[in-house]
Amino acid sequence: MTDFFKGIAPLQFDPASSELAFRHYDADEVVLGKRMEDHLRFAAAWWHSFAWPGGDPFGGQTFERPWFGDTMDLARLKADVAFEMFDILNVPFFCWHDADIRPEGASFAESRRNFEEIVDYIIGKMEGSKTKLLWGTANLFSHRRFMAGAATNPDPDIFAWSAATVKSCLDATQKMGGQNYVLWGGREGYETLLNTDLKRERQQAGRFLQMVVEYKHKIGFKGAILVEPKPQEPSKHQYDFDVATVYGFLKEFGLEGEVQMNIEQGHAILAGHSFEHELALAASLGIFGSIDMNRNDYQSGWDTDQFPNNVPEVALTYYEVLKAGGFTTGGTNFDAKLRRQSLDPVDLIAGHAGAMDVCARGLKAAAAMLEDGTLEAMRAERYAGWDSAEAQAMLTGDLAGAAARVEAEGLDPQPRSGRQEILENIVNRFV
């Protein structure tokens, strides 16, 4: 045991408590026939919780953590503290990038050895904990070598380095029993078209993803391969802008049956969408996989990665998740970080606990809306005309046939209310 979280006991479900506790998240509460823990499948992010130093664009490190530093002993200490937090929060999963859990070596080989050693150490920690790996991923964006991208880089040696890194991370994810593997192209984009070959870079990115899928099958990895869309920041444009863009990319390279989406709330907002839009679209396209749960500060226009605290937004999120059939291998990863003034260990626990409560309230509201059925009944009624034989025949016919109906049947269609305000009022009954 370390003393980082000294004095902080494992959190309990106790709505009346004046101490740190869960007030809405009861892991064993049954919602729509399933335990709440099994619905939400919470995961803690290693990078924001244990690797992020508290900096921002105008200032550096504010956090002082006893494990900060580039040694294996400190990496092991970081893992010890991480599992203490997982146990306090009773979260079933965690997620990592390779660079989060191991120190950078002087060469790729040294970094790989460091990584493999710490993976084995974490596996040992997992044997004494309920917390398992939701997904692993590679950091192909922080080091200066990736300033022009990883798979899309104009330098083929960096493509090779990136491939070697992903191979190591996919091997480790399988060894740790991870249920998914995520690719997030933080630098896969451009800053100016003046030095960019768009067609070449897209082809490189497509072939890279094909290689990942091929390797997944070669090693027998049974988990899902997930791509996480993001529209911009730091690049001017990124090739994985949103769910629709990624789906077109997957279709282009024959991967739509192999790859699913890990969708983040903050990235959806930066793309000009709502979170629920991206989830609904992914589900309709058959590529919904997992979510990163956080929020942006709507005044900043930046990906601020704050813990969620807006129950109505979260309720609409889980409404779409439940409509999609819920998570299979995916889950709710808190890709969220403390504010840089929140320095204390208790802040880290409180941030996660509050977010878990918000998600629990959102899930229960979403389940109640589905059980009530009014929203879905009104949606079905709006499209009921399409259930007729004439309407279905029109979809399998031609333009002339559709046009002929107008005069033959004396059609004079009139607009009907979409009832948006009524629908919004219904949602507000539950949130």
Automatic annotation (TrEMBL):
The active site is at residues 97, 100. Mg(2+) 2 binds at residues 264, 267, 303, 305. Its cofactor is Mg(2+). Its main location: cytoplasm. Mg(2+) 1 binds at residues 228, 264, 292, 335. One of its GO terms (biological process) is D-xylose metabolic process. This is Xylose isomerase. Belongs to the xylose isomerase family. Binds 2 magnesium ions per subunit. The keyword Magnesium applies. Keywords: Carbohydrate metabolism, Cytoplasm, Isomerase, Magnesium, Metal-binding, Xylose metabolism. It comes from the Bacteria. The gene is xylA. InterPro entries: Xyl_isomerase-like_sf, Xylose_isom_bac, Xylose_isomerase. It is found in: Cytoplasm. GO terms for molecular function: magnesium ion binding; xylose isomerase activity.
